[in-house]
Amino acid sequence: MSRECESSEHWGSRFGFIMAAAGSAVGLGNVWKFPYITGMNGGGAFVLVYIFCILLVGLPCMVGELALGRASRCDAVGALKNLAPKKSIFPGILGGYGLGLGTMLLMNGSVGLGVMVLILSVLILLFRWGFLGFSNVFVAGAILSYYSIIGGWIIYYTFLAFSNGLAFKETSAAAAVFGKVASSFSLSAGTGALFLVACCAVCWFGVKKGIEGVSKLVMPVMLLIILVLVIRALTLPGAMKGLDFYLMPRFANLSAKGALEALGHAFYSLSLGMAILIVYGSYLPKNRDIVKSACYVAVLDTLIALLAGLAIFPAVFAMGMKPDAGPGLIFNILPVTFNAIPGNLGWLWSGLFFVLMFIAAFTSGISLLETVAASFIRQAHMGRRASVLLSTVLVGVLMTFISAGIVSWENFPLLKKELTVLFGSVKDSLFDEVDFYCSSWILPLNGLVVSIFAGWCFGVKNVSREVYRGTKLEHLELAAKKHRMFLRAPMISWSFFIRYIAPLMILLILCHGAGLFGKVFG
């Protein structure tokens, strides 16, 4: 292992690491996306499938990423590059397949897409695991660029809520305000920059004083706020209808598309495929139990997602609203819902909810920025503060660019034309386009690469060494006959999931994102 990957920074306590890692996982996906996609996919059955996917895919991949991070003491680029076997053939296979695919695309007239696939394939063949690790870092920065815009909107809505500016009686009025916010370049870029600067300020002070210190403070506050909202929602007349919708599994209401969406969200909500857990794992001391820590994080992440639903659906049903409003549930439906709650305290319930949203976005934003900065620290040998500042500037430039294309392509007609030629079609806006390719393509591909690397390249034996390090089983003789099966059985189970189940399910996510199931089944 290269010396430059040895980190002098470590988590100060297990509690601090769990709060920071859970904060990275608990984001807008839990508090915003999970409730609205649950509402769109029939409620309780979707929740059950989501929990099942967390156990089958999320937890094994999380253990793998944490183990790679602690074993390498490095960022994603260094981890994959330094831990890879000298004779690893996977990058060659992937690059060779890409060359063949790119050539076929060119022969079929898809010139733009074919050239892009060929360029990426050559980069994989030249830089091998290092380039595949860079893909994890790149997507973290790209996601943070548009994530900051949403974080900025939440800051603005928090101000509006506590100043009684969200006292809407009709969803049309709420939608009109949100439309103005989203279409305002100055507001989106300005509040997005404010959100990004706040993340920068935390990472500036390092792991213990910055990330861990803030996470230990705000995560308990998040739990307290969400419990208050849950209690208030459950005490509303008619709340039991929402509870029945949310918790009673009705599989007739869940389509195959909904099940695949649950699978994709389980992967996204744990921050897999973004190198966050590799970086956070690299800060783990050798005496920390990886499996136990991963279980705590997964349970806390899932718990907050479930509590968010408990805070939303009973209130939505009690106030006579519809649960299947999609992405507009948070900005268009909930302000009206909270305002309709008896007692004239709609401003308080809306304000608490958007504070909750801000904490979720903020802790995830910190982890995304730290992931990018860690690569500059370890690959470019830069100091922490210079790395954090450079990362903030680069992400900020991309964020400003995307802010000009949130609702349409009006400001980027030439870019839209070129992307249409390249991919055949584009989404409704630049914002949607970036989100689609990051979430539906790059993120699952990164997860597929990391699961294959952990299960097949770095290997079960090496992962086992990291998993048992810091536990009571570490000092047992692995070759001793009486302990052999006792120690091997859990890792055999893990290897089965990380080698076969996780890659298969990630491939299903990719096929769903590509629309293949719709084409096959009509």
Task: Explain the overall architecture.
By secondary structure, this protein is mostly helical. It has one domain (3-88, 128-445): Orthogonal Bundle (Hydantoin permease). Helix content is 78%, strand content 0%. The chain has helices at residues 14-25, 28-40, 44-72, 76-83, 90-107, 111-127, 129-162, 171-183, 185-204, 207-234, 239-247, 256-269, 276-282, 290-318, 328-340, 346-379, 384-403, 413-423, 430-458, 460-468, 481-513, 516-521. α12 (256-269) packs across α21. The longest helix is centred in the first third of the chain and has 34 residues, at 129-162. The model is unreliable at 477-482 (pLDDT under 50).
Write the layout of secondary structure elements.
Layout: H1 14-25, H2 28-40, H3 44-72, H4 76-83, H5 90-107, H6 111-127, H7 129-162, H8 171-183, H9 185-204, H10 207-234, H11 239-247, H12 256-269, H13 276-282, H14 290-318, H15 328-340, H16 346-379, H17 384-403, H18 413-423, H19 430-458, H20 460-468, H21 481-513, H22 516-521
Helix pairs in contact: 1-10, 1-14, 1-16, 2-12, 2-14, 2-16, 3-4, 3-12, 3-13, 3-14, 3-19, 3-21, 4-7, 5-6, 6-7, 7-9, 7-16, 7-17, 7-19, 8-15, 9-10, 9-16, 9-17, 10-14, 10-16, 11-14, 12-21, 15-16, 16-17, 19-20, 19-21
